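Recap quiz, item 2
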Amino acid sequence: MRERHASHGARRAREFEAFVAGAAGRLLHAATLLTAEPPDANPRARHLLALSLAHTYAAWDRLHGEDPYDRTRQYLATRFAREAWHRHGGLGRSRGRPAGPLGGLSPQERLILVLRLYEGVAEEQAAALLGLPLERVRTLCDRAVATLLRPPARRAGPSGGTGHEDGDAVRGPAAGTRAGSRGRVRGS
Amino acid sequence: MSRPKREAAARRILEQSPPRVPPELYAEAVRRGGRMLRRRTALRRLTWLVLGAAAVAFAVWALTVQPWVEPPSETTPPMTGWEGW
């Protein structure tokens, strides 16, 4: 029993190592694009990817023919979405704008851009994964592409304004009403 | 610029300068994943243990108390002194 258990573990480790060797480069690139860090200094992307890979490793025996790459990417995307939500809802608002080619985009725009264009996930799948309506995914993707291709001179506006836009984009359509009610409470 | 063209241009920007994969990534993932697996196994074992202990406790209680046996009546007074009628 113990022997079978050990050989099972060894096989899992072998398969997982092959998977990581093949997929880690592309996944790390995707994660680095998401966090908008420079390619040679990307601690957040590495951490995110290590967590996602650990999740896949733990679920390796219960994949039942599911693609481990898909699984890892899904976890990576949802985890990043959750983190971005928390960061922008709380203390992180004052944090400086990240560098890199995607630095001018909000986290949600980056997420959709990476899923749609870099990973080639279909619009419907991306919408289902993030729990957004299809039209919203399309709009966000178009906006992200436009921002990415526009020369950076237009983007270098007052930093306070862009920061606010970023926050709204992350929190989605409900953000406006919430911000409004908060403003009223604070005003009275 | 048309939509496919713009998307292709954006894709080219995204593909630039891929990062180098750190060699310790695999070990880190296995370490964390193994810990998650072990924790899950321990939790499952603990759950079964608690369930088993509860089942044993119930069985012992049921066998000692025997709640299905009708208890002896305590309300009717003993009937005495009817011989005189």
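Helices of chain B lie at 3-15, 25-65.
The radius of gyration of chain B is 37 Å.
End of item.
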